[in-house]
Amino acid sequence: MTLTQHVRNGWYLGAWSDEIGRTLKQRWITDIPVCFYRLPDQTVTAVEDRCPHRKYPLSLGHLDDDGTLQCDYHGYRFDGQGVCVGVAEQADKPKAALRRFPLVERDGAIWIWPGDPELADESLLPDTSWLTDPNWTHVHGVVPLKARHMLLLENLLDLTHETFLHPTSIGNAAVAATPIDVTVDGDRVGFSRRMIGIEAPPFYEKSCGLTSPVDRWQDGDFYPPGIFVLNIRVAATGTEEPDGFHMKVLYGMTPGRGNETHDFYALGRDYLIDDEELTRFQHEQQLAVMQEDVDALEAQEIMYATDPGGTAESSIKSDLAALRGRRAVAKMLTREQQAGGTRPRASA
Ligand code: FES
Ligand SMILES: [Fe+2]
Fold first, then answer.
1. Cα–Cα distance measured from residue 107 to residue 130, given in angstroms and rounded to the nearest whole number
2. Average pLDDT over residues 221-241
3. Contact 254, 12 (CB under 8 A)
4. Does any ligand 1 atom lie closer than 6 A to the CB of residue 194?
5. What's the CA-to-centroid distance between 84 and ligand 1, angstroms?
6. How many angstroms separate the CA atoms of 255 and 259, rounded?
């Protein structure tokens, strides 16, 4: 597993809507520095965060009330379309424009396409309507991860690890003992696992007020290169779908700079939506589980980074979805490189 280059012709979660306002925000995405901000009409914009004059970060500049972005090194000024409209030192305008990225803002999430704008296709995004559905409630955020995107992707596509890495919250022996079904549809990879009549893991026991035995279903969908949605159902054993407790977890696995990744998450549920105590509990648990993953992935990253020769890996049946996910991303990268790439990768 050596894949450390990033697909750029794809959607990534760039930011949550509530992170972006009239303050300039820098976030590295696929090794590109990006500056996010909102124009006076509240439209969100993302431009490459390198001034075309001498590469100073525009995010260290400032935004005027009319939406003009000014570089605070030598004063280049850019309109809402990213076109340079002047500079204080001279009367004639320098010929310069900022690279702007295709964005979709929907259901409180801002999706960015860092590659060829001609290929940006909204239909490749997952359904996120549950993030704003009045019958659902959710928490969301982003956790920094010092490990390559591919390791996070494999972590989510192989939830067998819950048994070993999260034994006090969401994992127990039933997860590792239950095989998964894997489906591949074009670039997309899905898996499902049905755990019937099992002991309830502590998180679900407390979240749903259930006692064992329970049925627990996991259906994961990977939208390559960087989006994963997990549909969860937990119910008293023998309860028919669609009864029971429904939860969803969305992960935005967004490569940052070098082998760093932004680990965006949203955890939602469709029951007891006004129960703030439950929301707090679930959010704490989500962050605790993610920290266990972050600690593991950062330890794993060191082992991959110091093994450039690529010692052979051993694999088992439960790796299947993760291996399909790897292949999907590798194929996208090959297609992109054969098409001439979107831009040389920055050294990082
Ligand atoms: S670097 Fe931006 S104006 Fe000079
Ligand atoms: Fe995990």
1. 8
2. 93
3. yes
4. no
5. 11
6. 7
Residue 238, φ and ψ in degrees, nearest 5: 90, -5
Ligand 1 near 54 CB (within 6 A): yes
Tokens (6 digits) for 155: 């972590």
Distance CA 145, CA 260 (A): 6
pLDDT digits (tens, 9 = 90+) for 191-221: 999 999 999 999 988 988 888 999 999 999 9
Residue nearest to atom 1 of ligand 1 (CA): 54
Instruction: Decide: 227 and 126 in contact? Cβ < 8 Å.
Output: yes
Which amino acid, 211?
Answer: T
pTM of the model: 0.95
Distance (Å) from CA 292 to ligand 2 centroid: 7
Q: Is 229 close to ligand 1, i.e. is its CB under 6 Å away? A: no
Closest-lying ligand 1 atom to the alpha carbon of residue 76:
3
Ligand 1 pocket test: pick from 71, 89, 93 the residue with the most ligand atoms within 8 Å of its Cβ. Answer: 71
Cα-based distances in Å from 87 to 47, 56, 83, 93, 319? 19, 15, 12, 7, 56
Looking at every residue in the chain, the average pLDDT score rounds to 93
Q: Which residue has the tokens 């939830």?
A: 159
Alpha-carbon distance of 170 to 166, in angstroms, equals: 6
Q: Give the mutation target among 24, 47, 48, 54 for probing the ligand 1 site: most ligand atoms within 8 A of CB.
A: 54
How many CB atoms are located within 10 Å of the residue 332 CB? 18
Q: Which of 248, 223, 222 is nearest to 233 (CA)?
A: 248
Q: Which ligand is nearest to the CA of 77?
A: 1
Rg (Cα) of the chain, in Å, rounded?
A: 22
Contact 99, 82 (CB under 8 A): yes
Ligand 1 binding pocket includes 78 (Cβ within 6 Å): no
- In terms of Cα–Cα distance, which of 195, 214, 176, 202 is closest to 288? 202
Taking CA atoms only, the protein residue closest to ligand 1 atom 3 is 74
Residues 105-115: tens digit of each pLDDT:
999 999 999 99
